[in-house]
Amino acid sequence: MNIFEQCESKVRSYCRNFPAVLHRAKGSIIYSESGEEYIDFFAGAGALNYGHNHDYIKQKVMSYLDADGIAHGLDMYTSAKEKFLVKFNEIIILNTKQLDYRIQFCGPTGTNAVEAALKLARKIKKRPGIFSFMGAYHGMTLGSLSITGNTAIRSGAIGTSNSVTFMPYPYGFMESFDTIEFMESVLNDVNSGIEKPAAIIFETVQAEGGIIVAPIEWIQRLRKLCDKHEILLICDDIQVGCGRTGSFFSFERADIVPDMIVLSKSISGYGFPMSLLLIKPELDIWEPGEHTGTFRGNQLAFVGGTAALEYRESSNLEQDVKVKESFLKHFLIENIAPINENIKIRGIGMIWGIDVANLGDSSFAKELTSRCFELGLIIETVGRNDTVIKILPPLTIEMATLQKGCLIIKQAFEDCLSK
């Protein structure tokens, strides 16, 4: 028994799928203590869009530490926060069409920002209800669990879904069903038994739900539905924001403006804990200290986040993502989909899914990712019963490494199917 099994809680998860003691990492490669190299198609569950130990971001962080910069600042004014706010406002808010937001720094992880959004929406509208979507994932604290669709991970939090109604997302048989019209009918029917909610929270791409990409028209109609019924629209861009789909915000392709936006994961640029809630100015009705948290002022995250935005601005990262998106799409369609007619490919930008739900039993996806790990690739499963292989490499991954990782996936398919 190793020290992890001896001392660490049974709740540990990822290490069970990737049973190596990881030692160091650079770019899109992770190295174990025993010397193995792994291509990273996991990227810290989306927290490492810029890869591991990005040189430009690392140098900015090290310089800040060398200068004895403030490391912990609650919500006080600091030079690190000032620089981040200036850069974020300049590059993201002012350069993105029609956006105007106040920035709330929340606790260290995405679920903290989700909690803040739910709390604020209910305060504004004075209504308790929230609409979420089947297949949604928003975090592991009680409020976030209440709007997460996976009943398995909600099972330990009894009674979390009070005042939450799950609506159908455009996926599976629901793709031929008008889910927006259904919500319209529910809201207009005095006998539906469902009260008008304070907010609707949604993901433009359900990542943990199985890489389900919402159609542009559906997103636009959702915005109009919220406007018509005076419901706040909250976009959870924790995993698919920060350039994952190409543009900085994933909703930009639909040309809409949410009332609130939740950001975390890669916003710090370096894997430092950080989460933001972007709020339309007229909705910022918080009283001072009404929603707080000891680690809402992560100064290293401000430094890393500022550097990441500078790098994004100077490197033409958005165009680079489009090039890699084109490669991934064509590789998966031409090399993976033909392996079996039951394989389904879905994705956008640099988040893609290989759905093997109809290929063997539910353990097949796990066999595939295990074989990938043996071949030197870290990649995880998501979706219903974990039957979707999720491709989520750093945005900065070298094309040759991206190609090598994809070839490992193909090899894993061949090996597993040959059994």
Automatic annotation (TrEMBL):
Alphabetized GO MF terms: diaminobutyrate-2-oxoglutarate transaminase activity; diaminobutyrate-pyruvate transaminase activity; pyridoxal phosphate binding
SUPFAM superfamilies reported for this sequence: PLP-dependent transferases
Tree of life domain: Bacteria
Pathway the protein acts in: Amine and polyamine biosynthesis; ectoine biosynthesis; L-ectoine from L-aspartate 4-semialdehyde: step 1/3
InterPro entries, sorted: Aminotrans_3, Aminotrans_3_PPA_site, Dat, Ectoine_EctB, PyrdxlP-dep_Trfase, PyrdxlP-dep_Trfase_major, PyrdxlP-dep_Trfase_small
Coiled-coil residue spans: none
Presence of keyword Transferase: yes
EC number of the protein: 2.6.1.76
Record GO biological process: ectoine biosynthetic process
Keyword Iron-sulfur: no
Keyword terms: Aminotransferase, Pyridoxal phosphate, Transferase
Family indicated by similarity: Belongs to the class-III pyridoxal-phosphate-dependent aminotransferase family.
UniProt name for this protein: Diaminobutyrate--2-oxoglutarate transaminase
Lineage, top ranks: Bacteria, Bacillati, Cyanobacteriota, Cyanophyceae, Nostocales
